[in-house]
From TrEMBL:
GO annotation, cellular component aspect: membrane
Family, per entry: Belongs to the multi antimicrobial extrusion (MATE) (TC 2.A.66.1) family.
Main location: membrane
Cross-referenced Pfam families: MatE (PF01554)
Residue ranges of the TM segments: 133-156, 162-183, 195-217, 223-249, 270-296, 308-329, 350-372, 392-414, 421-445, 451-470
Keywords carried by this UniProt record: Membrane, Transmembrane, Transmembrane helix
Compartments, record wording: Membrane
Native source species: Populus euphratica (Euphrates poplar)
Record-given protein name: Protein DETOXIFICATION
Single Gene Ontology MF annotation: xenobiotic transmembrane transporter activity
Length: 500
């Protein structure tokens, strides 16, 4: 019998995670065994751990993404204008709220994970409520952006007809803002306890309901873009309510959810500072390629450019969700092994998870190139858009490959506590190099969407190389000591989990 909760709640076939972690470290430090035998045995142990971590997370993120993507597909079959409007609404306005809310909600992942590991189970529910309060408050100014999305998009130079149509769709997404505010804290609350599979089942059920309601709203009831937006908002609220009902009913959460408490309104300023810091790195990541869509709206023949980029970006995001699952796995594996004092296991885990994600991304890129001429017909029947999307497919393939490495390295950074460093790297590579270079190539050299994308790829390549170099040069023994010092500094009397 275990005396306390394990760090991971998955039912591993052989041992609990701590035993497996010890086994992995023993294998890697056994210098008497042949080198290749050690690598083979260690790889098998690590791959089993990754499977139980990454697979449910990938499924959950994919299903959540398909909910939004299906709306884009349905609206795309209404016409090119509707597809451009939904693309601009999703990638230009909605993703701003998504990135901010997800970034702020990610603070719950850190705090709840620390509290769960420290056996302070009752604090998980408090952190969940504090985050939800802050995110709901943040949703109010975000709602103003949604309400005035049309003049904002026009001010940014988007065509009036596309901005007008996008504003109608975005208006239907206002309830989704507050669904995000509730969903992300709940999601991280569950992930901290390694409860991932129920969220995946809930997302699958919500997807089925969403597809049916969107089909009725768009094609049978003729509610248009506003109806599509409202259905998308409703679907996210279904996910939120179902997850919260699970928390109330599940025995797994009875020690971490003790009901609503007035403590949720205390310590909000410290919690806000930590949430804001957590949001910076993720927002810089999330918004980067969405800026590509906004800039493309300034090109001549913006409708075709937006439609073709919409097709490519939707496919890219879909594949990116796989990398996000590996990102979560990398963060958990590295932080767990560093906390357990296993430097070789932490280093080996980085190698295995990055290799797995890279191989999958290469396969996805090859599939994109094979079906480059027909892939856009999933979203729209226009031949002009199909040709434009086909021309952009090599850029999409390179992006997919880079996204097979870069998000995983970001997960490693989170596991090591390098968020501030990565934020500086992102600012420099993305916004001081990538975006200006993309604008220069796209407009000054008249390369259009290809030029914009090329410049922004340059920023991603540079950022990935920097993270690879830093990870390669990492002294994992030193990182173990840093982790031990961080843990030893915890003091219950000062609520250290809220300290910056």
């Amino acid at each position: 019998m275990e005396t306390g909760p394990p760090r991971l709640d998955f039912k591993l076939s052989c041992h609990d995670d701590e035993t497996v972690g010890d086994e992995l470290e023993q294998i890697l430090t056994d210098t008497e065994a042949p080198y290749f035998k050690r690598i083979r045995s260690a790889s098998w142990v690590e791959l089993k751990l990754l499977l139980h971590l990454a697979a449910p997370a990938v499924i959950d993120y994919l299903l959540n993404n398909v909910v939004s993507m299906s709306t884009q597909i349905f609206c795309g079959h209404l016409g090119n204008l509707e597809l451009a409007a939904v693309s601009l609404g999703n990638n230009g306005i909605q993703v701003f709220a998504y990135g901010l809310m997800l970034g702020m909600g990610s603070a719950v992942e850190t705090l709840c994970g620390q509290a769960y590991g420290a056996n302070r189970h009752e604090m998980l529910g408090i952190y969940l409520q504090r985050s939800a309060v802050l995110l709901m408050a943040t949703g109010i100014p975000l709602m103003m952006i949604y309400i005035f999305s049309k003049p904002i998009l026009i001010l940014l130079g988007e065509p009036v007809n596309i901005a007008s149509a996008a504003a109608v769709f975005v208006f239907g997404l206002i309830p989704q803002i507050f669904a995000y505010a509730a969903n992300f804290p709940i999601q991280k609350f569950l992930q901290a306890q390694s409860i991932i599979a129920p969220s995946a089942y809930i997302s699958l059920g919500a997807l089925v309901v969403h597809v049916l309601l969107t089909w009725l709203a768009v094609f049978k009831w003729n509610w248009g873009l506003l109806g599509a937006g409202l259905v998308l908002s409703l679907s996210w609220w279904i996910i939120v309510v179902a997850q919260f009902v699970y928390i109330l009913m599940s025995k797994k959460c009875r020690n971490t959810w003790k009901g609503f408490s007035v403590e949720a309104f205390s310590g909000l300023w410290s919690f806000f500072k930590l949430s804001a810091a957590s949001a910076v790195m993720l927002c810089l990541e999330t918004w980067y390629f969405q800026i590509l869509v906004l800039i493309a709206g300034l090109l001549e023949n913006a409708e075709v450019a937006l439609d073709s980029l919409s097709v490519c970006m939707t496919i890219n995001v879909w594949v990116f969700m796989i990398s996000v699952g590996f990102n979560a796995a990398a963060s958990v594996r590295v932080s767990n092994e560093l906390g357990a004092g296993h430097p070789k296991s932490a280093s080996f885990s980085v190698l295995v998870v990055t290799s797995c994600s890279f191989i999958i991304s290469v396969i996805a890129a090859i599939i994109v190139l094979i079906f480059r001429d027909s892939i856009s017909y999933i979203f729209t029947g226009g031949e002009v858009v199909a040709k434009a999307a086909s021309d952009l497919s090599p850029f999409l393939a390179v992006t997919i490959i880079l996204n097979g490495v870069q998000p995983v390295l970001s997960g490693v950074a989170v596991g090591c506590g390098w968020q501030a460093f990565v934020a500086y790297v992102n600012v420099g590579c993305y916004y001081l190099i990538g975006v200006p270079l993309g604008v220069l190539l796209g407009f000054t050299f008249d390369l259009g969407a290809k030029g914009i994308w090329s410049g922004m790829l340059g920023g991603t390549v540079l950022q990935t190389l920097i993270l690879l170099w830093v990870t390669w040069r990492t002294d994992w023994n030193k990182e173990v000591e840093v982790a031990k010092n961080r843990l030893s500094s915890w003091d219950d009397r000062r609520q250290p989990l809220l300290q910056n």
